[in-house]
Amino acid sequence: MRIKILQITAAYKPAHIYGGPTMSVAKLCEVLTENEVELEVLTTTANGKTELNVATNKPQKVDGVTVTYFKRLTKDHTHFSPSLLKKLRHLILQGQNQSKLVIHIHAWWNLISIFSCQIAKWYNIPVVLSPRGMLTNYTLGNRNASIKSIIHSLMGKKLLAYCHIHATSGKEKQDILQFINPKSITVIPNLVELSKNDKYEFVQSLEQESVFKLIFLSRIEEKKGLELLLEALAGLQFDWTLTIAGSGEENYIAELKNKVESLNLNNQINWVGQINNSDKFKLLAEHHLMVLSSYNENFANVVVESLSVGTAVLLSNQVGLADYVTKNDFGWVTDLTSKSIQTNIENAYKDKNKRVEIRKIAPKIVKNDFSSEELIHQYISFYQQVN
Predict the structure, then answer these.
(1) Beta strand pairing status for 65-70 and 60-62?
(2) CB atoms within 10 A of CB 293
(3) Nearest to 21 by CA among 214, 254, 221
(4) Domain at 3-191+372-386, CATH homologous superfamily
(5) Entry pTM
């Protein structure tokens, strides 16, 4: 009997506002479909505080993947959609005698994920949960901490114990095991869209420039540690610029811009907004160093994306791929203090030879280590094991 995967995610393409997690889910579904795995995506019209302009309640093809969008009643991070949950129950009942079902839920703490898990448990359907960074002490205490604690005590803990957890890095696995006991936990890296261009013509002249070019490319939110980064940059004694690419809450971005002004950094910060997928690799390649001083990051797709074009990275030690970067000497790893960040940026600036070597060797190694062709077999094997 064949396996069918029901992918449950509160947001899906083209909801790029949610950044890396949404793109990782879509990439996984696309590659599974290419490998002839039967799957269907159930998602909502969530697009931040607005809704996607898409047809609802009927399956459609999105880059080859069968996706059904459902309207949500709540316009916040709860993403409550009774019609999605009703459809999930219908598909479970319909498929019980037709195929072996596995339900793969992405992210946690939203009502779609929690109630989908409960429905699957009622019908004894195996659940794979990819928390996407949502099951860490940082996330548990960062936003709506009291509500999360209540949910965890009343039903979350029992539901999570029913799940087979998919972690994207060794660090995420360690974070998860600090406070839950799942049926099993398996580490498989995210599938990441990599640059198809092996060489950019302007890269050779980049190292001849006198200004050190840094780039932050991610969703702009508090956990990214941008305040610490700005304080570190204010202490540098050489010429530099920072490109900030991404979107976020208007109020928070306004706070950051006020901090930039108070530190007298206006002339060195370039705010470029959300960047299309087709443009981000060229933009990354135009910079000497990608910086990500996050307080918590289960994986960080942008690290792989940056290294795929040869741009070195500077990460906090709370980023899931920090161990990978250290192991391969693909950049610098910093503590979460402005002084440590400043020192490591200075080290990156001074070590031109290391940056040139990373530019030379990283693309080939990264494209091998994060090959979709290799990783997808690990995902398929994982589904078969939990079923």
Answers:
(1) antiparallel
(2) 29
(3) 221
(4) Glycogen Phosphorylase B; (3.40.50.2000)
(5) 0.93
